[in-house]
Design goal:
Blueprint lengths: L4 E7 L7 H15 L5 E3 L12 H4 L1 E2 L3 H13 L2 E10 L2 E9 L5 E5 L9 H4 L8 E4 L2 E7 L18 E6 L6 H15 L2 E6 L1 E3 L5 E3 L3 E3 L5 E4 L6 E7 L1 H10 L12
Parallel strand pairs: 1-2, 2-4, 3-4, 8-9, 9-10
Antiparallel strand pairs: 1-15, 4-5, 5-6, 7-8, 10-13, 11-12, 13-14
Helix pairs in contact: 1-3
Length: 259
């Protein structure tokens, strides 16, 4: 029988441009779910906030941020996902990470940069999707604005079982957040988890949270609610997903175009 997956959404505020404080704070939040989850998901740019001050805030791959995340995963025996501002070979990336308890780390660079905030002027875009194998699950990891582009998340031949979006999605666009998360679940016949921050950032933008998990039918399985800091854990059933895909194999009739 396929293994269930316990996934925890860490919905929190982010201390603006304060890497040290955020690493300390999120470390404590992860400690609290230790032993009760297989995978903890943090918001986008969890260690700094969604800042364009990349020269001051970016971390190299051998820096404090990656080392700290690997330490959490090993110490608390769970995978950890999220994104941070990375520097590599003179370029800056909004880099998502998926780190397992045994130290394996996989990375995805945000493909769609949010031009309305100038992200495209400060960061370099990624061009490779990521699917990670973890506990008998195939997991696709994407970042915030990627949610608006369904071709990029296209689930060809059920390549993934769970699609994760880490985000700093403003409250002003809450309707789009909810509608698109549900749509991605239905059209890709996969679980979808969206983890968003709360609070107000250093530029005055308010974030509502609304971190959610949907199943492949579009049914909401978990909702972290609005504006409050909270952690919600949900158990996902691979058996149920496979049964639905067998009973209703719409994925077999998908168009064959390629990216």
């Amino acid at each position: 029988m396929a293994e269930d997956l316990r996934i925890s959404m860490i919905q929190s505020h982010i201390i603006w441009e304060d890497k040290e404080e955020n690493l300390s704070y999120f470390g404590e939040l992860l400690r609290r779910v230790s032993g009760r989850t297989d995978l903890a998901v943090l918001p986008e740019t969890f260690s700094t906030g969604f800042s364009m001050n990349v020269e001051a805030l970016a971390d190299p791959m051998d820096g404090t941020t990656v080392a700290t995340i690997k330490g959490w995963a090993e110490r608390y025996k769970m995978a950890v996902a999220g994104s941070f501002i990375a520097r590599e070979e003179g370029k800056y990336y909004n880099r998502a990470f998926f780190v397992t308890p045994d130290g394996e780390a996989r990375y995805y660079d945000k493909r769609h940069l949010f031009r309305m905030a100038g992200e495209d002027r400060h960061f370099s875009a990624g061009d490779k999707p990521l699917v990670v194998r973890y506990k008998d699950w195939n997991i696709c990891l994407q970042v915030c604005y990627d949610l608006r582009f369904p071709v990029w998340s296209r689930n060809v031949n059920n390549a993934y079982d769970l699609l994760i979006y880490v985000a700093n999605w403003p409250e002003a666009r809450k309707k789009a957040w909810k509608a698109l998360l549900q749509a991605r679940a239905i059209e890709n016949m996969a679980y979808v988890c969206g983890v968003n921050r709360v609070g107000v950032d250093g530029k005055g933008f308010a974030f509502r949270g609304d971190s959610m998990i949907y199943d492949a039918r579009g049914k909401k399985l978990a909702d972290a609610g609005k504006r409050d800091e909270t952690t919600r854990t949900c158990v996902l059933s691979k058996t149920d997903l496979e049964a639905f895909r067998t009973k209703f194999p719409a994925w077999k009739d998908a168009d064959a175009f390629q990216l």
